[in-house]
Write the structure tokens for this entry.
Amino acid sequence: MSHDFPVLMEHLAKKTGEVELDVPAPQSSGEGAAAARFARAQQAAIRRGDRVAHLYELVDGRRASNGAAAGRASLTTEITENEGRALIIAGASWVGPAEYRPVPRPHIERIRIRGFRCIQEIEFPLTPLHALIGPNDSGKSTILEALMGAPRSNAGAPSEMTTFSNKRALTCGPPGVFEHGAQVEPNQAIRDNLASSPSPAMLALASPVRMVRLDPDAMRQPTSLIAQGNPLEYGPRGHGLAAVYDAFLSRRLDVFLEISKRFTELFPTARSIQLTNHSESTKVLGVELKDGRSVDAFRLSEGMLYWLAFAALPYLNPAPLILVEEPENGLHPSRIADVMRVLRDISNISQIIIATHSPLVVNELQPDEVTIITRTPERGTIATPLSQTKNFEQRSKVYALGELWLNYADGDLESELVADSTIPSTAG
């Protein structure tokens, strides 16, 4: 949490101040190369969700209109995009560019999973855009699998998953799916008749779920066309991507042209995206190069395929919850920021939860948007918010988030990051 966030919320609650939100301004106007560097730094800060809050204290319900304080904010402080959402709900005003306005909307604020595969019990907060990081085989994919649907039993014991939002909870487990107060344990809710049928609002937070686990071979396959009126979709592995781009040509030409323009900027050897008839009823993706040669899907680079899949994602049939496995796969490091910008934009309408091993992905996030997942034989999977790791406040002043993780991770127990109480006594 940003240091001054509680102060801003208190002023709004007591109506003793007005809060205006904006994007960060360039550090300096500068000239030439210096100005370009500052502009790039500003865009990077905006992309990872940095926002600025200006507090204007009120006297008798009005801002100061004369004297030294006239028209000046009594406090200007950095906040995160998620804090901006909370401030807007509390009454703050957005004065920055409209395209960067944080959009308040319901989402899963916290999750608890019990008795599912390697998970004995974990509980941790979630944000509209959230990343799970940590060693291999720690449980990141297991958490995504639990979010895909009802957890199955673990070694005969009943499995349970509870999602929390707006002081309500939705539990999936024995004896089914039911809603209850966030402060009430599921078994107590059943025992004391405090459980109810799930409300449409709670069900809508995570249903339907879209899994994105892209596979270049699947994206290369010829695909049947999408009939007019049917929703735009590709499969979890990306099968059907060519059909989506074919539908863009007939339904959303503006989208096709916009993606094509960005594609040729990022991949300068390409002149245009091509769609080729593989048969009378199927098409495949391809690219025309600037030298006039055509490259079909089976020779197309994996990086191009991955990028095209993520570029199309905002225009697919909406899903309230999107789970993404390793969005960095196949991408040049310089393309990761572009994909993360797409995912952050989508997080204004769909909650995005990512499993990643890339520090560059983490660099595009805020501290409250990252959770470290570790695992021990005794406790199973353990979830630790990155902002609650050892010496985080001091370390975050020295390192970008991804570099902080990279410098202190050991690929096993992450003992330099997580609390000593989560590390077996025999370790190290």
Notes: Residues 214-317 form one domain. The first helix runs from residue 5 to 14.
